[in-house]
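Subject — a protein and its fold
Encoding — discrete vocabulary of local shapes:
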Amino acid sequence: MTSWHPDRISVESFMRGELGGSDATRIVKHLVAGCPECQGVARLYYPCARPAAVPGGAERCISSWRGKGGRKVGEIFEDLLPELRSRQADLESEQIDAPGLVDRLAQCPQERRLMLVENSERYQTWGLCESVLERGFAMGPQDPAKALEWTELGVAIARKLSESTYSSELVHDLKARALSYLGNARRINSDLAGASRAFEEASAELDEGTGDELELARLLELKSALLFEYRKFREGFKILDRAIGIHRSSGGEHFLGRALIAKGFQLGELGDPEAAIATLMDGLKRIDIHAEKRLHLAAKHNLVYHFYSAGRYHQALAMVPEVRALHKELGDTVDLVRFKWLEAKIAQGHGELEAAETAFCEVRQFFAESEIPHEVAQVSLDLAILYLRQGRVAELKRLSSEMLVMFSSLGIGREAIAALVLFQQAVEMEKASFGLIRDLAAYLKNARNHPHLPFRPSSSD
């Protein structure tokens, strides 16, 4: 069951046999999944006075519909209505049970969760699978390790779903979604090879599914992020634009907004802040901010960053109070500290150097105490730029020495250590430049997922 919901006119057109192709397939799937509102509209057009047993049920409906156009819709749906009524009651029961089951699973270690899913039919339901997957997906930005556990659990549940209960094609769709979420979770845990395997499996499951283009679009969105990690920008934008096209055609504003925001993030990563700003603003106009509060916050946070990157400091400053309040509302300490870091960058760009230095030092200390080495490195380099700009050579030398000692103790990779040694030597010889610092910052960002990448400085100014 997807979050997509057709409008009443589309359902009515479908029931009159006037709608064909992928739009009709999607509505069949939506009705089979148990939407009471749309089923009510359907019954107005085809009341079922004499229910008949249908071998294959929902699966037969979808299979019969695919490739037959609108001519058979009345006959097929007449057969299916009794099953829909029964399925609706079952799904409502599952949805009522799901939150309590999720709470119980949250109190168990992962091994126990997997055992329950393997052995108890109570933990093998569609409603629980969707709830577990959404929990795992939402955890990704804050706790990648737990996100991976929950998405692995969602995959395990999807693989135990009864195809006779939910229909084979619908189960394949949900398996594809679960594996797409797993690929995303592996990506943010820096397991890029494992992410690639999960996306390949997801594509294979989708080929056996209903043909729902919205499920395909979600897969393409998440897979594009992996391609960007591999620096395959052309391919990544190609499939992300395909997902955006699907959402434009379907009329789902929230999903279109989400895909546009994803594109805005990547345009910013590619170094095009103006394009990122325009795309993020387009996406923000479309999303339901109550449905995905963290997505709304992430988009606003990135919009502030790209205003800063484009040198539009006044616009960045104007948004700071709103975005800071959103961070406090959602209550994630690390994200709030990251926003303080961004505020320090804006202050530096705006010429408020004393305030920027104080904030950089506080943020750096937080990341050091939290043992997040790459963030320590990036904040230290921001501080190095400030010192270099002010000609504070002694502070710059002290900072470079501290960076090397700290990163060695935090277990940063050998290639990154070699890059920091080169930076320290340049500082000691008083040959450090803004270009070298920018190159090192870009390198450390890429080295997070590619630890064997060597450092090759390219700039000198």
Observations:
- The chain has a mean pLDDT of 83.
- The longest helix spans residues 73-106.
